[in-house]
Design brief:
alpha+beta; 6-stranded antiparallel sheet; 5-stranded antiparallel sheet; 8 helices; 11 strands
């Protein structure tokens, strides 16, 4: 096979996603931020609809930032790319997950880079169709571990943004983001821990059960500051 007929590669899509992020930066700077926090992990070709599905990978700290600040799903129209065969700009429908380009709807997706000049992009009238948040399976696990709490106590936790952290083969689920890279988390048995990335003892048990935790926490994170550094 000629090298000119090879299928699209990650490097083509990395540059294309970056080009789009830069064009959209004035009105949607969060897309450029999300792109900078990740790398393309895999490419899959879709048949219904035809297109390219992109999966992205993150480091632990980058994932924490994405999970905290980029909880989005939306379709975007208004971007056109130059079709080299038709000699005109062709509009594309794009889908973003966590502010990162995830799906490009296009015919002949395997050779997207051969049909289009991915460096020639035009921005027209941008329209964004926001989609409902995906169900968070980690949140369900955390809620089960915290079932002894009252509804009022549950509301004082940040369970909408819960995510799983693996530490020394132990699975933990964040319940409070201390907003400095540190967390309060629960395990599946309901034990509560503090996680401090910079402390000599990075993981420390602070309550044997959820109700014990609420003897020291009343909804004010400032009351937990000392716990992070003990």
């Amino acid at each position: 096979m000629s090298i000119f007929n090879r299928k699209i590669k990650k490097k083509h899509l990395e540059q294309f996603a970056l080009n789009i992020a830069e064009i959209l930066e004035p009105e949607m700077p969060q897309i450029k931020t999300a792109i900078d926090l990740s790398k393309i992990y895999g490419i899959h070709f879709m048949h219904k609809p035809r297109g390219i599905h992109i999966t992205r990978g993150y480091g632990q700290k980058e994932f924490e930032l994405i999970n905290r600040n980029h909880k989005t799903r939306f379709n975007l129209t208004g971007i056109s790319v130059y079709n080299k065969k038709e000699k005109c700009f062709q509009p594309l429908k794009l889908y973003f997950q966590s502010d990162g380009l995830s799906i490009i709807e296009v015919e002949n997706p395997e050779y997207f880079h051969r049909t289009f000049d991915l460096s020639q992009i035009q921005k027209g009238e941008i329209k964004v169709e926001h989609l409902p948040k995906l169900e968070n399976p980690d949140q369900k696990i955390a809620e089960k571990a915290l079932k002894s709490l009252t509804k009022e106590q549950m509301k004082l936790l940040e369970l909408d943004s819960t995510f799983e952290i693996e530490f020394d083969q132990k699975l933990l689920y964040t319940i409070l983001d201390m907003e400095d890279g540190n967390y309060i988390a629960v395990d599946k048995k309901g034990k509560i821990y503090r996680l401090n990335h910079d402390h000599e003892e990075r993981l420390k048990l602070i309550a044997n059960k959820p109700t014990d935790f609420f003897e020291i926490y009343d909804g004010r994170k400032s009351k937990l500051d000392q716990l992070l550094f003990d």
